[in-house]
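Support request, please re-run this one:
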Amino acid sequence: MPKYQSIPHYEFLRKFPNQKPQSVYYIFGPEDYLKDIVLKKISGRFRSPGSEDFDSIILHADTDSAINALEQLEMMPFMAKFRLVILKNFDIMKVSDKMLIAEYIQNPVPTSILVLTAEKIDERAKANKIISEKAMKIICRSPYNSVDVLRWLNVETRERKILMDNDSKELFTRSIELNYQLAANELEKLIIYAKGKESITIEDVKETVGKSKTNKVFDLQNEIGKRNLDKSLTILENMIANNESAVFVIIMLSTFFRILWRVKALRTSNLSDSEIENRYLPEVFYKFRKDYIIFANNYSKIAIREIFSLLLQADIDAKSLNLKDEIILEVLVYKICKI
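Re-run finished. Output below.
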């Protein structure tokens, strides 16, 4: 296997479809959002429909040993061409485990693909030095300036077939903080606002995208998940003061409680919390999945069913009644936390 230099995530994503498969991919950097995108792209190429449960597995360095990973790598694929083994947070693994992985990489199984993710690579360590010389390394850096965010936005709009002119894109990238996750959240908000339109205009951006605030809808979800009424209302007050749309908040809370409902349903199928966290919450970033498991403990299925009714009624009120968003949302949050 040839020695690789680290390549930026966007360059890798552009070239990856036409590249021959590699035995080892090493995704690293501070941007979890980008690492998830790269990981999803690799998984999508090497997983075969219907064989996911047989020919791929996700392991975590804090709970799985190198021996476990090696056993998985040595298994032959059942239906797919390759067996895909993903080992997350490799940088926190014990030194002895890292060395076992490094030894494997020097003579990898040709029918297996190993994907490592990490915050950073310390090439002073022997294991990392060996792996760094053998693996294809993809670096996921934080955006340096608005040009980086614009590059990301161009890819997102192209792949999702979203029409957005250059002036709108320019305003979007200059109106948000240099953070890919926040940019993704703002883009989702913009898409919801412009739903039904042929294209997103500069007026749409002006109406919906402002400087990202700390107390956003995800903070609201977290406090509602904890049933913390006081903090929920404080965050909501901040959002309303910054002209957050009631319809958008209702949509995001609906998505939040659908995920909690899924957790409750999967538990009734005798799936463990660990299995649900690792395999059945793909839309939730891995750092926050455990939080959703905990939030699900705070609401019964009966309560969540009642909350869906509250959300539906709030949506109807927001679209049809001459009531202030503030009143609709405060009543909604109060009823949810007190249900």
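The chain has a mean pLDDT of 89. The CA atoms of residues 109 and 245 lie 53 Å apart.
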